[in-house]
Structures are given as structure tokens and as C-alpha cells.
From TrEMBL:
Residues 200-222 are annotated as: Disordered. Keywords: Membrane, Transmembrane, Transmembrane helix. Residues 203-212 have a biased composition (Acidic residues). The chain crosses the membrane at residues 20-44, 56-79, 86-103, 109-134, 141-162, 174-193, 235-255, 267-285, 297-314, 334-353, 374-392, 398-420. SUPFAM superfamilies: MFS general substrate transporter. This is MFS transporter. Coiled coil: none annotated. The lineage of its organism: Bacteria, Pseudomonadati, Pseudomonadota, Gammaproteobacteria, Oceanospirillales. Belongs to the major facilitator superfamily. Nitrate/nitrite porter (TC 2.A.1.8) family. It is a multi-pass membrane protein. It is found in: Membrane. One of its GO terms (molecular function) is nitrate transmembrane transporter activity.
Length: 431
């Protein structure tokens, strides 16, 4: 394993390739993520029109994230072998038939199969991560990776446009809205972007065996080995922020519509106040991580998110207290403004966490980015695919709508315990 100062040499120079990658890769990310969030908006309408149950709706939300998690590592490996640009273009083109299929689906299983196909777009996310890491300038790697991760702002495109298109032209037209931009970005990547140059590897010494020779610079021999524990720990930390953010971005429009009896269009627009700070926070977190080693930042970010989740976990309640001079009635109901304010703070904190952690992954394991980044996206996708079912568990079986926030609170507590056992992640106590 190379040291923290030995990130990939391919990204040391700033040229037009770096600028093209920094501009086009986030657009590809945004379009893939916007495609994933189609069901967050259309699914609420389809649930009432086609009589989906809550469990079926949760499975529909979870399917793109589940298949995306399965595709992340293989696509990252393919990107390291054949070039991130080629894999990104292939994955963008691959999801187009499934977007067209959503427009022509009429039963639940067709929608579920189309959602599984959309998950293959995660290959573009993993390949783009490898591509950006290979070509970005090392001095500004955190900013470049943060800009790439800010492609999650694509959810805002879905929240804003899909209700308008669905209302004006009907829901079958909404998935087709993304086809032309996806084809356009794929064409721009093909014409203007170039593959990262291969770094020539030194000839192995006579005393090195084949495995040791393959371990230099992330060559194929190491590709098949299990990732080291340090990579797994960083990927686990990243998976919480990534998975929780993606799942909440999908779940919030339906949650706000049901909890506050809002029209779907209004609920989707209120959800923007969670996704927009998350994307901007990712840029901020990456830029901050460029300036210094922000390993302690994860503790502050985790503490902020934990406080927000604790407050969001409280359901509406009424309590009667038997006082000395009579009974006291206490009631609590989270107002819409308070909930949106907490979501805004939490989205910003999650974005900062994602940006800084991805920069740490690059800085510590930049020579092994296909495995490190692919593993982080895979774990995050699996965690995100689990959350819609946990949200339904709270709604249907426990009967408390805020149980999803309770589950996230418990998951973050477990993640922080794992961080505390990691000697490299313990907070520094200064006297």
C-alpha cells in the first residue's frame, strides 16, 4: 500500500482533460441519480393509480440501489482495465432502454424489472469515480471528487421537473424526459473526453514473486485480493452517509406528502431543501479536506447528524402529567418548518462527511481506487436498499412513521462505535 502522499501520478498535471472530466462526469452522475429518483416522485402517483402496497412501493424504491450495489465493484474493476470513459458511456446507454420501458410499463413487475435495470447506472458512478480520481489534479483532488459527488443534486431535477411534466403530459412522458440529456452527455464524453493514461509499471526485481510484482500501482494481481481492513473501515463510514442520503432522497417526498398532507409537487419541492445542501456540502467537505487532514471532522459531522436524527425520531405525542394542582397535558408535533430545518442541517452535514471521507479514501488508498471507491459505493448501495424496508417496517408494523429516523440513529451509533475502535479515527483530546 502506498503512503498517503502517493496518490496516482496520472492526476498530477492540470490540463484540458482534467477540466473536461470535472465538468462532464458530475453531469453523468446527476442524470443517473435523477433516473434513480424517478420512483420517489412517480411511485407515489403510481401507488394510488395501480394500487401498490407499502411493501411493494418500498421494494420499487430499493431495487435500483440494490442492483447498483451489485454492479459497483465489477464496473469499477472494468473501468480500471478498459478506461472509465468507456464504462461510463456504456452504462449511460444501458439505462436508456429501461427508462423507455418505465414509460410503457403497466404492471408492478414491469416497473420492478425496469428499476433493476436503472440500478446498472451505478456502474457509471463507480467508473466515473475511478475516472475522476485518475485524472484530477492531486492538489485539488478533494474538490474534484466533491464536485463529482455533488451529482446527487440530480435529485433536484427530478423533484422540480417530473411533477410538472406528469401533470401536463401524463406520467409516461416523465421517464422520457431524461433520455435526450443522457444521450447528449454520453456523446460529449465520447467526443471530448479521453481515457486516463496508463502509468508504466517498473519491472519487478528478481527477488519478487508474481504477487508482489502485481501489488505495485494497483495492477491486476492485487485486484483479486480482499481489500485491507483500513479500506473496509473507511468504506463503512462512507456507506452510512452515502446510503442514508440516497435513501432519504428517495423517501422524503412520500413521507412529507403523507405526514403533512401535502400535494406531491409541494412535497417534492420541500425535499429540495435536503438534497441541495447535501450536494453543496459535498463540495465543501472535499475542498476542506484538500487543505488539511480532516480525520477528526467525521466525529463532528457524525455528532451533528446524530442530534438531528434524535430530534427527527420523536413522533407526535400527547402526555398527561398528574400534577399537584391538577393534570397537565403536554403535546408535541413537529412543524413542517422545524422538520425541514433539521433536514437542511443534516443534509449539509452528510454532504461534508461524504466529501471529506472520499478525499481521505483517495489520499490514503489512491493507488487502489477501483477497490476502495467501488467498495464504498457497494456498501452504501446495500445500506440504502435496506432503508426503504425499514421505513415501511415503522409505518406498517410498528405504526410510527418516524421509525425510519430511529433506525438511522441506531445505525449511526453502531458506525461511531466502529470508528472509536479504529485507532486512526479516534478523536484527539487536547489539554
Amino acid at each position: 500500500m502506498l503512503s498517503a502522499g502517493k496518490a496516482p501520478a496520472a492526476g498530477l498535471q492540470v490540463d484540458y482533460r482534467s477540466l473536461v472530466v470535472v465538468l462532464l462526469s458530475p453531469l453523468a452522475f446527476a442524470l443517473v441519480f435523477a433516473s434513480w429518483t424517478i420512483f420517489a416522485v412517480l411511485g407515489v402517483e403510481l401507488k394510488s393509480a395501480l394500487h401498490f402496497g407499502e411493501v411493494q412501493f418500498a421494494a420499487l424504491l430499493a431495487m435500483p440501489m440494490f442492483t447498483g450495489a451489485l454492479a459497483a465493484l465489477p464496473m469499477a474493476a472494468l473501468a480500471s482495465r478498459f478506461g472509465g470513459r468507456r464504462v461510463m458511456i456504456a452504462c449511460l446507454l444501458l439505462i436508456c432502454p429501461f427508462l423507455w420501458g418505465i414509460a410503457h410499463s403497466r404492471d408492478y413487475w414491469n416497473f420492478l424489472a425496469a428499476g433493476a435495470g436503472l440500478g446498472l447506472g451505478a456502474g457509471s458512478l463507480a467508473a466515473g469515480l475511478v475516472y475522476v480520481a485518475a485524472l484530477c489534479p492531486r492538489r485539488h483532488a478533494g474538490l474534484a471528487l466533491g464536485l463529482y459527488g455533488a451529482g446527487m443534486l440530480g435529485a433536484g431535477l427530478t423533484y422540480f421537473l417530473l411533477p410538472l411534466v406528469s401533470q401536463a403530459y401524463g406520467w409516461p412522458m416523465a421517464p422520457k424526459l431524461f433520455l435526450l440529456p443522457i444521450l447528449l452527455v454520453a456523446g460529449l464524453l465520447w467526443v471530448f473526453a479521453e481515457d486516463a493514461p496508463r502509468v508504466s509499471q517498473p519491472e519487478p526485481d528478481d527477488g519478487l514473486d508474481e504477487l508482489e510484482a502485481g501489488d505495485r500501482g494497483g495492477t491486476p494481481a492485487r485486484r483479486w485480493l480482499p481489500p485491507p481492513p483500513a479500506v473496509c473501515r473507511l468504506a463503512l463510514y462512507y456507506s452510512f452517509f452515502y446510503g442514508a442520503f440516497v435513501a432519504l432522497a428517495l423517501w422524503l417526498p412520500g413521507y412529507l406528502a403523507a405526514q403533512y398532507q401535502l400535494p406531491l409537487k409541494s412535497a417534492a419541492l420541500w425535499s429540495l431543501l435536503f438534497t441541495l445542501p447535501g450536494g453543496l456540502g459535498q463540495i465543501l467537505g472535499g475542498a476542506l479536506a484538500d487543505r488539511r487532514d480532516f480525520r477528526d471532522l467525521r466525529w463532528w459531522v457524525s455528532a451533528c447528524v446524530m442530534v438531528c436524527l434524535f430530534l427527527l425520531s420523536y413522533p407526535d405525542f400527547t402526555m398527561q402529567v398528574h400534577g399537584i394542582y391538577g393534570d397537565l397535558m403536554l403535546s408535541f408535533s413537529m412543524p413542517l418548518g422545524g422538520l425541514v430545518g433539521l433536514l437542511t442541517i443534516m443534509g449539509l452535514a452528510m454532504g461534508v462527511g461524504k466529501g471529506s471521507l472520499m478525499c481521505l479514501l483517495y489520499r490514503d488508498h489512491g493507488d487502489d481506487m477501483p477497490r476502495a471507491g467501488g467498495l464504498a459505493l457497494a456498501l452504501g448501495g446495500l445500506f440504502a436498499s435496506l432503508l426503504p424496508l425499514m421505513f415501511v417496517l415503522g409505518n406498517e408494523w410498528i405504526g410510527i412513521r418516524t421509525a425510519g429516523f430511529m433506525f438511522l440513529y441506531a445505525a449511526l451509533a453502531v458506525c461511531m462505535l466502529v470508528m472509536f475502535r479504529d485507532p486512526d479515527s479516534r478523536p484527539v483530546v487536547r489539554c
